[in-house]
Amino acid sequence: MPWARRTTFLLWGVSVALLALTVVAVRDLAEPAGTWIVGGTVLASLVPFAAGWLATRHDPANWVGTWLTAAGTNILLQMAHGNWADALAAAPSDLPASAVLLNLTQGVWMGWFVPFAMVLLLFPDGRPADRRARRTVFALLGSVVAFNLLLAVAPGPLMPPLQDWPRPFGEHWVGNGSIPALLVFYGSLVMAALATRRRYRAATDEVARARLRWMFLTCLTVPATILLCWAGYLLTGTPVVALGGLIAMNVAIPAATLVAMLRHELYDVDRAVVAATVYPLLAFGVVAAHAGLSAALALALGAASTVPAVLATVVVVVLLLPARALLLRVLGARLHPRRARGVDALRALVSEVHAGTAQPERLEPVLQEALRDPGLRVGYRQPGHPTPVGVDGLPVLGDGTPIRLSGSDIGVIVAGPGHSRVPADVAREAALLAESVRLRGELSQALVEVDASRERLLRAGYEERRRLEMDLHDGAQQRLVSLGMRLRVAQHQVAAGGTVAIDPLVDDAVEELALAVRELREIAHGLRPSCLDDGLGPALESLSRSSALPLHVSYSGGDLPDHVSVTAYYVASEGVTNAVKHSGARRVALDVWRTDNGLHVAVHDDGAGGARIAGGTGLAMLHDRVRALGGRLSVTDRQPAGTSLVAVIPCGS
């Protein structure tokens, strides 16, 4: 078992012991509010405990999880130490106490900061990044030890509430060295926060940089909280002012560490970094400006007048919005140059597209250059494609940043290997360009399909004319020519004074004409099924009677133009035939209904699926026939639930 995990288990045991000591001290105090304080403190410790447990589970050998657990243990330590001291100060008390231990733990409050500073120094791999970070670790831990040892012999009483307790080590001027030790401690906290920035600047992997940005978001809470604590002592005599900083530090750092280790792409952290920098600066500026204006106007108009406060408020409010926008733009470009480069490059491309000097299809190479990610791909959602495709027609795979426009998912930007996700602001800026590329691609694809469909229709028409020509030549035409020749021979015989049997000749002629008419009718029926003479509904019922599989027909189309009925019949016939011949289905359903959009023809089977609209197939011919009428035909393969063939045919005459 790694030592990091062993130490984590030890900290859990220590935490249980500290909780037990707290309960003993609260019972000795006998204060009703003590139970609620203990419960709230335990709840507060759950955040770092949970983060430490998950981090240790994710990487048992990483000391980051151990120090997060130590942050939870520290909360219980502060509670146990404070309640024990309060119980000892509220004499009489039966609690055991050691003056030596109390003198050596006056700096126990440092425990609020040490675990989180160590997390900043060790994140993400559990080791200091460089020599400066290692020196900071020694300075941090050494200053804690030195401060407590020197404070034990410093002149003056112990810290409240035990200021009247004895000093077993005495008082010595050497104890004044606790002040330099305290300054070293604070300097170490600042260096721990800066260590995150140094590690971020040294990182070359975009994923590592994305994780470190999460830590950068919260690293300043450590030195800022101790500054608040000192400010509270100077202004109010108590550390209550630092309570907000302590809460933020004990929640933000564990949460940010956990997200950075496990789910660094959970949220657009760069936006949070900019906001976390802008709004404190903005708040400070507002307070300072308001105070300065109020003071200046009070001197000019009179201190007792309410006019200065009103005027100062109006001026600050007027300046607030442009100041916010300016700070967001300036700090956004400074703190997150990748986002700024992407947005600026896209805006420049939009201007070039509007000027006619560039095409929107340059979206992908422009982003590759701006974000310095040669492997970046931009995919566009196209009808008939389950996955986004690039401008080259190849699928774009991977989990990327979606491109949305008006609530619709129109594409995706997938970062290359080793690069972090593309910022959401860049995807939003690319939305109009992506929509333009997508629509242009759909139009180009539609034109290609129209040209191919026209070519197939021309080829099919030519082949159909040749077939009709052959059928007419080999059938009815031959009969009629032969009949004409026989009549001409009989005419010549009569003209030459011969005799001709008229009755047999007329009978044969009538029979030949009847055969020719029948063949012509059969050819005509090949162009238009004769079953449509009674309408589309009865024609579809005839399909159910002749189908080799159980066929359920539902029809509510009403009266239709002839060309719509013919096309719908061919769609239904081809769909049923494919289901019978190729799908291995047990039953087929044929539904025909009419809406404002046109006539819908749907053929569903429960077969093995696998049907495709491919060139040279009957479905391709149907697709062209439906498209020629301005409709659309689609095939959905619902493996293993069968196939659905759906056509929508406009019903205009």
From TrEMBL:
Its EC number is 2.7.13.3. Residues 563-653 form the Histidine kinase/HSP90-like ATPase domain. It comes from Nostocoides veronense. Pfam families: HATPase_c, HisKA_3. It catalyses: ATP + protein L-histidine = ADP + protein N-phospho-L-histidine. It is an enzyme of class 2 (transferase). Keywords: ATP-binding, Kinase, Membrane, Nucleotide-binding, Phosphoprotein, Transferase, Transmembrane, Transmembrane helix, Two-component regulatory system. The chain crosses the membrane at residues 35-54, 61-80, 100-123, 135-153, 173-194, 214-235, 241-262, 274-303, 309-331. This is histidine kinase. SMART domains: HATPase_c (SM00387).
